TrEMBL record:
Domain of life assignment: Bacteria
PANTHER family: INTEGRAL MEMBRANE TRANSPORT PROTEIN, SLR0610 PROTEIN-RELATED
Name this polypeptide is given: ABC transporter permease
Transmembrane stretches, start-end: 28-53, 59-78, 118-138, 150-175, 208-227, 233-254
Keyword annotations: Membrane, Transmembrane, Transmembrane helix
Length: 266
């Protein structure tokens, strides 16, 4: 089957999942509002500290808001289209992964649209903070309008990097079955740490967030060029290359991991 046919099938699976979720519209709206409030309250705590002290390691409130928003939106794109990759453990424990193996489509394509959800709350929260941060920096002349398309680009490459990290972590479940504790490190903790400038951390930790778990390439590294005109324009194609390498490596690891899968027999 051609790639276009796979894409068409993926869209149909998403539509089916969305229809099932929209049967409970009130729950969807309430969950979206609560998600936005939780995310905004998290950023407000940072904003209060920055407002009092002015900056963190030379990074202004607008710049930290930019890092926070880019990471949030990149995560939102990833988790919107591939949330079940993050929840692979439940398929391995229950034996439902066996059902995906019997479908006449690639396993990953069958997994990704399962329980597809529109993360409206995160989009609103991340979009608001991003617009606020960019507007503040534009008023001071720190950035121009070119920052907008560049930011959209790095949100997409960031989503690819986060997806790759999530997929590689999930693949380890073919050997260990349980992966939640590992995800707390590779996805949750690493992503939370990268919401702030990496200069805040010891050199060994910032190296881990750039080399071992490359979340620093989602927002921090591109922000050095977009916000501060550092490193040079070459950093943008380099980040796209990092995203491509991460994606290719995680897909190869996933294919190898599937060969090691052992059914629960349930």
């Amino acid at each position: 089957m051609k790639a276009g046919s796979w894409f068409h099938l993926y869209r149909l699976l998403i539509k089916t999942s969305v229809r099932s979720r929209m049967q409970y519209k009130f729950n969807f709206i309430l969950a979206s509002v609560l998600a936005a409030l939780i995310q905004i309250s998290e950023f407000l705590m940072i904003a209060i500290v920055l407002y009092k002290f002015g900056a963190i390691q030379g990074w202004s409130l607008y710049e930290v808001g930019y890092l926070f928003a880019v990471m949030t939106l990149s995560k939102t794109v990833y988790r919107t289209f591939a949330d079940e990759v993050h929840h692979l453990e439940k398929y391995l424990i229950s034996g439902d992964f066996d059902q995906l193996l019997t479908r006449p489509i690639p396993v990953l394509l069958a997994l990704m649209p399962q329980n597809f959800r529109i993360m409206l709350g995160e989009v609103l929260q991340g979009g608001f903070i991003l617009c606020w941060s960019l507007a503040g920096m534009m008023r001071t002349g720190q950035v121009g309008w070119t920052a907008v398309p560049l930011t959209l680009m790095i949100i997409l490459t960031g989503a690819v990097i986060l997806f790759s990290i999530g997929l590689a972590t999930a693949t380890i479940g073919f050997w260990t079955t349980r992966i939640e504790e590992l995800q707390n490190i590779t996805e949750d903790a690493a992503r939370t740490a990268a919401q702030y400038p990496l200069t805040l951390y010891p050199k060994w930790m910032s190296s881990v967030l750039l080399v071992v778990i490359p979340v620093g390439f989602v927002n921090y590294v591109p922000s050095l060029y977009i916000l501060r005109d550092e490193l040079g324009v070459w950093v943008l194609p380099a980040i796209a290359g990092v995203a491509a390498l991460c994606l290719g490596g995680s897909l190869l690891f996933w294919r190898f991991g599937i060969t090691k899968y052992q059914s629960t027999g349930s």
